[in-house]
Amino acid sequence: MGRFLFSRLLRTLPAAWGILSIIFLLSRLLASNQLRLAELQTSSITGHVATAAQLRAAEFRLQQRLGLDLPLFYLTPTLAPQRGWGLRWQWNGWHNQYHVWLRGLAQGDLGQSFRDDQPVANLLSQALVSTLTLTTGAFVLTLAAAYGVALGLSRYRRWRTLVLAGLHLLQGLPVFVVAVLLLLFLANPDVLMLFPAYGLARPDFPPQPWAYQLLATGYHLILPWLSLVLVSFPALAVQLDTALQHELWQQYIVTARAKGLASRYVVNRHALRNALLPTIAQVADLLPALVAGAVVVELIFALPGMGRTMAEAAAARDFPVLLGAVLLVALVRLLGQILADWLYYLADPRIRLEA
Hints:
mainly alpha, MetI-like fold, 3 domains, 13 helices, 2 strands, 3% strand, Peptide/nickel transport system permease protein, transmembrane, membrane, cell membrane, transmembrane helix
């Protein structure tokens, strides 16, 4: 297994390098916009139009802070008239913007926030804990719900048409619609006040033991979890049910039943294992989809996390925080692909033999 996972990690390195390079180029383009904003802010703060010298001084200080006074890359193309106006590549050494940015990234340095001058890594790490708690719980519940519904449809066929219609209906609903409906019907004093409508805990409560805090956090996350699960598991359940129905008509299943094996054993041991293979491909898309949905859910339920952090950063034009969040989401997408490959490895013996 270790060799298999290592080979998959090596295959994701080019994609990871491409993502990092795109994020770097975006950061440089947005940094130039930040220079223009700094010029406007300098003029507005002083109450009069800043002189050219003041603008150059402010621009130079910001360039030094952002590292824009260094060469962009390891090599810089320049015109060479002696070669018929061809290009001559000048080596800039390791002291360039790209290398400094990669070195800082390897050390966990994502830059400084323009809004409050705090490290971006600290801001995102605090928000990421809440988002991962929400996303991980929704991921496990989504897999369990899809597995349970598909297995139930194979045993109780009389409800198949009705359940599939409900799944297709849920599949077409956006996550914010489901979240608002849950708030209206399950967190509304005029209808049913079963769950909290916002936040992770009541601020007026005194400090409690960690077990109580854990239960209180789970209680506050029930509606956010439901919002994500109800829009995520229908596609998996339908795909798994379709694959399972296909497998149940295969010759090896007919043979197993002819040998007198119990129907539950045949479904769980043989048919379901093979039906999982086409469904695993959707797992790679499930994790980043849950992260994107969690951003919306956090805004609706006023949860501290990536959603609120990105919304506040966008409102304040805090580009380093936004780019750091985009980088994290892109890496989660790559991790989802590695997770899908690992599940393929566990489900398909042929891949284990090839590895």
